[in-house]
Design goal:
The complex is a heterodimer. Chain A is mainly alpha-helical. Chain A is built from 7 helices and no strands. The longest helix of chain B is centred in the last third of the chain and has 23 residues. The chains are: A mainly alpha, B mainly alpha.
């Protein structure tokens, strides 16, 4: 038997198997007709149970939540500065402070430790934070 | 087809499209696991947030809808675990074996979700049909008209209606098949 026309295939699906023995036999050996029959069944199912669209308001709420997640992903100002620039800035700042104190002759007082140590700690913390941020997993 | 660059970039306009296109799949999962409408709506939003956050975990190797479903179910399982409340949602998760608790319940929630997914794929596939083919398919299968009636409405021969229907079925079959691979 040749492949039946679409009307016969549709009637077959509508009435159910067993009413057209010739077509029953054909379907057992024709993959194309099998797939078309399955698709016709799905079309009838779609007619009985149409796809339920999601209310716009609910979609908008979901999009608002996505926007919050998007904003949370945006990098901080610190994250946007490359590590090398941060390190260079820290080293230069340290040297500048050191030279300034050495030339002013106050290296022996208690002030220099604070003056040198404070920017050094801040610079180091910034570098560590930046490195950690750049190595953390993207999203979870 | 998913545009990976736009998806991974988390582009706003693209996610607007995705939410509208795949919303019914996400909603079918949220409805199956939600205790009530409010809970299901909350799950729906939570699932989309997670899909956004996890977007770079998706690769083209898997089906997009299957990935959405997987993430959605994970969100529901986590929600259940966090709440530790025995509810309709828990019973359904048990039926799925997601909680490691013995199966029960009269309906397979996963099968329901998969059925909904197939319906959505077919529904969306209509958009890829040429206008005349789409019209014939809608009239023939969704509105229940026969070839003769359609021919009269469209002012064409019944043989042309059959030919258009056959071409449309073949095209839909290809789209649906491509989608499920």
């Amino acid at each position: 038997m040749k492949c039946p026309d679409i009307d016969r295939l549709t009637d077959f699906v509508k009435r159910g198997a067993g009413r057209d023995p010739e077509l029953d036999g054909h379907l057992q050996c024709c993959q194309r007709c099998q797939e078309e029959t399955a698709l016709i069944e799905q079309l009838f199912d779609l007619a009985r149970n149409p796809v339920k669209e999601v209310p716009d308001a609910l979609n908008q709420q979901a999009l608002d939540r996505i926007q919050v997640a998007r904003q949370a992903e945006e990098p901080s100002v610190l994250d946007q500065v490359p590590v090398r620039q941060l390190v260079a800035a820290g080293v230069l700042g340290f040297l500048t402070a050191f030279l300034a104190m050495a030339t002013s002759g106050s290296a022996g007082s208690s002030g220099p430790a604070v003056v040198l140590g404070f920017p050094l700690i801040l610079g180091s913390a910034a570098v560590v934070l930046r490195i950690r941020a750049s190595h953390s997993p993207d999203f979870e | 087809m998913i545009n990976l660059d736009r998806f991974w970039a988390g582009e706003k306009g693209y996610f607007d499209e995705l939410v509208r296109t795949y919303g019914p799949v996400v909603q079918s999962v949220a409805e199956v696991y939600g205790r009530d409408t409010d809970h299901a709506d909350n799950l729906y939003q939570e699932i989309w947030t997670r899909l956004f956050q996890k977007r770079r975990h998706y690769s083209e190797e898997g089906r997009f809808v299957a990935w959405i479903r997987r993430v959605a179910i994970n969100v529901c399982v986590e929600d259940f675990r966090a709440q530790k409340v025995r509810s309709k949602g828990m019973a359904r998760l048990e039926a799925l074996g997601e909680t490691g608790i013995a199966c029960g319940g009269d309906e397979d929630p996963l099968a329901k979700v998969e059925k909904e997914e197939k319906r959505l794929v077919l529904h969306r596939a209509f958009d890829h049909l040429p206008p005349r083919q789409m019209e014939v398919i809608k009239k023939r299968y969704l509105e229940g008209q026969n070839s003769k009636e359609i021919a009269e409405t469209m002012g064409i021969a019944p043989a042309t209606v059959r030919s258009l229907a056959r071409k449309a079925i073949a095209r839909l079959r290809k789209i649906v098949k491509g989608f499920s691979q």
